Structures are given as structure tokens and as C-alpha cells.
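User: I'm preparing a small set of examples for a lab meeting where we compare how different chains pack in three dimensions. I only have the primary sequence for this one, and I'd like the structure in C-alpha cell form so I can line it up with the others. Please keep the answer compact; I'll paste it straight into my notes.
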Amino acid sequence: MSRMKFGTFMAPFHCPAGQDPVSAYQRDLEVLQHMDRLGFDEAWIGEHHSCGNELIPDPFMFITWAGPQTRNIKLGTGVVSLPYHNPLWTADRALFADNLLRGRFMLGLGPGALPTDATMIGISMEEQRGAFEEDVDVLMALLRGETVTAKTPRYTLQDARTQYGAYSDFDIVCAAIASPTGPRAASKNGVGLLSVGATAKGGFDSLALHWDVMQERGAEFGNPPRRDQWRLVGPMHLAETKEQAIEDVRHGLDDWADYTQHVLAAPHFRAAGATFEERVAWVNETGLGVIGTIDDAIAQIERLATQSGGFGSYLLLHHEWARPEATLKSYELFARHVKPRFQGTTDRLEKAVAYARSRWEELDQRQADAIQAATDRHSAQKTAAAQSGVETTRG
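Assistant: Understood. Below is the C-alpha cell output for the 395-residue chain.
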């Protein structure tokens, strides 16, 4: 398994509705800039057109705006709601973004998460997931440079091909929440999988479903799945103490939970609990995420590695449960203390400390003796020089 990567999955949520979108977008950008400075690997930005709480309608536009204002972090569409778009134009935009970002682009695909989005453009929920699988096949052919002729109820392509070439061999993933649609499309086309909110430890094991489909369909189509291309998404908010973390999320956890319970018509992505205390327990006790400490975060990722059998990236589901300064602090704690645990970036440092400790008593005494010896030599030389001067004067 290669080095584990870390990043964020940013819908982004701005709950409750009614906040100024300009300042909301600026906060999103500042989170990405903060994560970039902290050494996070990647950020995925969503596409939503309704419900008033998830405010970015075009992830391509957002990430190409954020690109020049960050340095190293990779930026991806998390995700493009593929059935909403002609796949030829999606291919063009992806390849264009890859060229603009010069290798920092990633492409995430999904069927669309908000039923109100699909309803407004006449796509039924019953056809949405089948349409997605069909469209991924078409899109992948276009990205490979093939000429495609295809006809569906949503578009017609006649000898279609993109005129753009890729700048890099960018990552492509399909998102999955509860259904097998994402892993079906990913495994058929040999791309990565992004499992959103599938981290709970009790009841139905979505992670097992996702990977079982990847293995079964991957074998069928000659695309054995790679665990290093599997990304898991879950929410966390960290503070120095669990009590402080819980106090921090009083700011916005209830508003976020209310959005998932009463505005977003998505039963597979819904908070539980009617009180603040019940909602905190839902996050922590189901294993969905962490409201707690560095140690809690480490334990969560270790548990997920065991439960899943191994994965390549963990993405923090971005939310505004806490105020901006506490949110940035949470990312900092994760970067400083959790991320190195799984990336091995401090292993040699810790070995250096252990070695120094093992030799401390011996070397400390030798150092003191060496300093004393040097001091004694200096004193002796001064004394000898003084005596030599006296004898010269007498002579």
C-alpha cells in the first residue's frame, strides 16, 4: 500500500440558509489555502443547484479560481453530477481544467445527490443512476480520445470527440453513498472509488458493499480494483479536549442536522437525533465520524483501515459545525498530529529521538567531561603563557 493521502470533501455546507454567499465562498477558499499550507494532499468540490445550503453550482469554475490562490494541493470535482450534462462538454471541461491546473486536477463523478436538482431539469430519480452508469462509459471513451456516436433521452452525440488533450494522467473517481451505482461504474471503467458517509460501524456495512462490487465487477471487466485508489469520506471536528470539541460544534451541528433531516430529501444521508446531545452521539457512537480529540481521530482511521481492509485516502467531510477559527484549528490539529501517524513522515524523527534518549546519559557525561577538559586545557595554557612571560622578563 502506498502512502495514505488526506484531504477534504467540500460540498460545501453553509447552514442555515440565508448566509451571504460571497463571504461563504471566501471561507471555502481560506479553508483550501489553510490546508494547502498544512500539507494536505487534495480537496474535492461539489456541484449543487438547489436547497439553499450547498452553494457551489460549478466545481470546475471554483477549482480553477482557487488554483492560482493555492500552491500544491490537488483540486477535484467532488462531484460532477454527470447526468445533468452532455458528456462531451464534461470531457472538454475536465481536460481544459487539467491543462489550466497543470497536473493538480482530479475528476470526480456522481449521479447527482439532490433530488430537487434532477427534478428541475426533468430527470427522474428512477432513471438517474442508470443514466449515470451509461454516461460514465461515454465520458471515459471521450477522455481516451475516441470518437463516439450515442443517443439517449438526454443527448445525442454524432461522431463526437474532444479537441483537447490531457496535461496529466489525472485521477478519476466515482462517488458512492449507499447504492452500488458508484462502484459498478468505477469497476467497469477501471477508475477509483470515493465512498461518502459510509464509515459507520454498526448495521449495514456500506464499505463492504462498495468493495465487494468493485471486486466482482472488476474481475468481470478485467479491471482489478486498487485499494490505493479508494477514498473514504467522514466528518471530524477536533480540539485539545473532547469537551472543547463538543462545545465548538454547538455553533452549527444542529443547523447541519436540520438541513439533512428536513430540507435535503436523501434518506441515505441523514443525521439522527432531535437534540444536540443526540446528534453528537450519532456522530461519535455510530462510528460515522469524530467530535473529539487527536487520539479519537487516530482510532477512527485505524478502525476504518481494519473494517475496510485498507484504503488509499481519507477525506474530511467539510462542514461548518464550528466557527471559522475553530474549524481551521481542527484542520491544524489533524495535520500536525494525525496525518503524520499514517504517512510515516515523523518515523525517522521519532527514531532519532529514541536513539538520543538511549545514549543521553553516556553522551551527556562525555560532553560535560569534554567541556571541562577543554576549559582545563585553556586554563593550563594561560598559566603556562603567563609563566613564560615572567621568565622572559627576568632574563
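A couple of notes for your slides: The chain has two domains: 5-348, 351-395. The longest helix spans residues 347-394.

User: Perfect, thanks.
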